Amino acid sequence: MIRRSVIFDVGRVLFDWDLRHLFAKLIDDKDRLEWFVTHVVTPEWHFQHDAGRPLADMLPELKAAFPGHDDLVDAYAARFNETIPGPMPGSLELVERLDAAGVPLFAITNFGHEFWEGFRPTQPVFDRFRDIIVSGTEKLMKPDPAIYRLAIERFGIDPAGALFIDDVAANVAGAESVGIAGHRFIDAPTLERELVARGYLVD
Predict the structure, then answer these.
(1) pLDDT value at residue 164
(2) Which residues pair with 182 in a beta bridge?
(3) What is the mean pLDDT of residues 60-64?
(4) Residue 146: what pLDDT?
(5) Adjacent-strand bridge partners of 163
(6) What confidence tens digit (pLDDT) does each residue in 103-127 have?
(7) Which residues are bridge partners to 15 per DSSP?
(8) 21 and 82 in contact (C-beta within 8 Å)?
(9) Cα 11 to Cα 13: distance, rounded to the nearest angstrom
(10) Any idea where the domains of the chain sit in the sequence?
(11) At residue 72, what are phi and psi to the nearest 5 degrees?
């Protein structure tokens, strides 16, 4: 059993994510852009894919509900990586330091299976992780306690020695409900102080 470990979320902890990063390239009018990402391709609709629904089911439904937006809906599927413009400032450096210090690293991410298959190979930082649980693959989503229990079993970790980092308070609470300590991510400097205080890193 792994006594001490750190478990990261991916979106908005390791990497920035917002649908607007893609659609701002395709929709010039700011008001129309906001309408589109709050009524058509919305985070809530997108989260169905995180939960395990295949794009082959989701896309035709959305096109039927919002005729005339087929090209934009297709862009969501084909160019999803463009919704992820780059890493959160300082986060990947903390991953590198933890790895260099010999801390076992894992991740639990709400991420669609098909999109993860396209994103994971573009980011060598994930080679530093021993295992990553992807909601769309497992058809379990944070903050369901079941996904954290799966992580404990599959990662082979002692929850009492693990720290889970996520930007969403409910997801942190989900981890805490199964005995994993949680840190709500605000920024890398705040996280660094937490990691030092808990003995994962040396200041």
Answers:
(1) 98
(2) 164
(3) 98
(4) 98
(5) 6, 181
(6) 999 999 999 999 999 999 999 999 9
(7) 11, 87
(8) yes
(9) 5
(10) 5-16+86-197, 19-83
(11) -70, -40
Q: What is the dihedral of CA 23, 28, 29, 35, to 10 degrees?
A: -10
Whole-number pLDDT of residue 187: 98
Q: Is the pLDDT of residue 203 over 90?
A: no
Mean pLDDT of the chain: 98
Which residues in 20-51 are b (16+ Cβ under 10 Å) and which e? Answer: eebbeeebeeeeebeebbeebbeeebbebbbe
Please identify, in words, the CATH class of the domain defined by 5-16+86-197.
alpha beta
d(CA 166, CA 108): 9
Helix runs in the chain, H state only = 19-23, 30-39, 43-50, 55-65, 70-78, 91-100, 113-119, 135-138, 145-155, 169-176, 188-197
Give per-residue pLDDT as tens, 132-147.
999 999 999 999 999 9
Q: Cα angle at 122 between 120 and 128, to 5 degrees?
A: 65
Cα separation, 173 vs 131, in Å, equals: 22
Q: How many residues does the chain have?
A: 203
Q: What is the CA radius of gyration of the chain?
A: 18
The answer to whether the beta carbons of residues 5 and 157 sit under 8 Å apart is yes
The candidate with the shortest Cα–Cα distance to 182, out of 108, 132, 90, is: 108
